């Protein structure tokens, strides 16, 4: 469970980013997936990957702190994928890789692209 400070930093970052993931730039949900699922027509399983998380630009293991300039909002999938790598790359490089693969349709499942192309914006 994130600390209140980290939770507040995540919420601030998500607001600054218009509710979109720092890496894939797709919409995210924060408190409850229900409206997100209904709005975009995603299954609960697919919606889970778009839960908003706090992402440290400089990873904690590398000395990154819980401070505003070091925290962005990222969807669960993008965040965990960066840190699962054997040799994790910096945030800027990860963003480049994510966006390149997204453009080729090789990041999120095909039904995600269809769901977000139907949605007109964040859930109400």
From TrEMBL:
One example GO MF annotation: endonuclease activity
Superkingdom of origin organism: Bacteria
Domain HNH, first and last residues per copy: 52-84
Region (Disordered): 101-124
Keyword Cell membrane applies: no
Keyword annotations from UniProtKB, A to Z: Endonuclease, Hydrolase, Nuclease, Plasmid
InterPro entries: HNH (IPR002711)
N-terminal signal peptide: none
Protein name: Restriction endonuclease
Higher taxonomy: Bacteria, Pseudomonadati, Pseudomonadota, Alphaproteobacteria, Hyphomicrobiales
């Amino acid at each position: 469970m994130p600390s209140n400070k980290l939770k507040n930093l995540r919420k601030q970052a998500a607001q600054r980013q218009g509710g979109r993931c720092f890496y894939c730039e797709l919409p995210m949900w924060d408190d409850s997936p229900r409206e997100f699922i209904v709005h975009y027509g995603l299954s609960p399983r697919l919606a889970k990957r778009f839960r908003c998380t706090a992402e440290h630009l400089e990873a904690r293991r590398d000395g990154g702190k819980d401070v505003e300039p070091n925290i962005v909002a990222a969807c669960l999938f993008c965040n965990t994928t960066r840190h699962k790598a054997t040799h994790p790359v910096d945030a800027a490089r990860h963003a480049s890789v994510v966006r390149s693969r997204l453009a080729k349709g090789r990041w999120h499942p095909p039904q995600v692209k269809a769901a977000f192309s139907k949605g007109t914006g964040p859930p109400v």
